[in-house]
Amino acid sequence: MNLILFGPPAAGKGTQAKRLVENRKMVQLSTGDMLRAAIASGSELGKRVEGVMQRGELVTDEIVIALIEERLPEAEAAGGAIFDGFPRTLAQAEALDRMLEQRGSRIDLVVRLKVDDEQLLKRVAGRFAESGRPDDNPESFSVRLSAYNDQTAPLLPYYQGQKKLVEVDGMGSIEVVAASIDQALDGPR
């Protein structure tokens, strides 16, 4: 099963993906994690990515798609992928569909975590105070949230048209959100 966890930054996608990895043995393809790993590597690509992320901008489709394609064999061997933070644009969604189709696969389900923007801002401010993660500072987060609302939220009709979209209230506790996601995964499609 290939699953997209959809929602703005700090909606809990990473938390829920990690739970699905543990419980369902799926492979999490988190663009955020992959990009942070590129930065940590100190490579030229990592340096380019670091500057983009610190400004709160989105990394180019070309870079993100290459990172995803590199990890697909691992996900296929495990029986499925959780796409976390990808796709972000209609062009990425169409590229992902083509990439998977060429591999005899597809996206099975898109779970949208519905959250409140004001609560997200509070969540990120708290997370930044604890971790100091540069891409979590409130200023960068506001830019990322705006980019999500402008560029990524329009993907909802794309997946709704494919009858793959399920909405889950992402403002509940981790356990309540997890139970709702499990129900969506195990329910009829």
Automatic annotation (TrEMBL):
Please describe what this protein does: Catalyzes the reversible transfer of the terminal phosphate group between ATP and AMP. Plays an important role in cellular energy homeostasis and in adenine nucleotide metabolism.
Annotated metabolic or biological route of this protein: Purine metabolism; AMP biosynthesis via salvage pathway; AMP from ADP: step 1/1
Q: Identify this protein by name.
A: Adenylate kinase
Look at the named UniProt entry and state the broad enzyme category this protein falls under: transferase
Segments carrying the region annotation (NMP) are 30-59
Matching entries from Gene3D superfamilies are given as: P-loop containing nucleotide triphosphate hydrolases
**Location within or outside the cell:** Cytoplasm
Chief location bin: cytoplasm
Claim: ATP-binding is one of the keywords in the record? yes
Q: What domain of life does the UniProt record list for this protein's source?
A: Bacteria
PANTHER family tied to this protein? NUCLEOTIDE KINASE
On assembly, the entry states: Monomer.
Reaction catalyzed: AMP + ATP = 2 ADP
Q: Which Gene Ontology molecular function entries are recorded, alphabetically?
A: AMP kinase activity
Pfam families noted in UniProt: ADK (PF00406)
Family the entry assigns: Belongs to the adenylate kinase family.
| Alphabetized InterPro entries for the sequence | Adenylat/UMP-CMP_kin (IPR000850), Adenylat_kinase_CS (IPR033690), P-loop_NTPase (IPR027417)
Q: Which UniProt keywords apply?
A: ATP-binding, Cytoplasm, Kinase, Nucleotide biosynthesis, Nucleotide-binding, Transferase
Provide the binding site for AMP.
Answer: 31, 36, 57-59, 85-88, 92, 133, 144
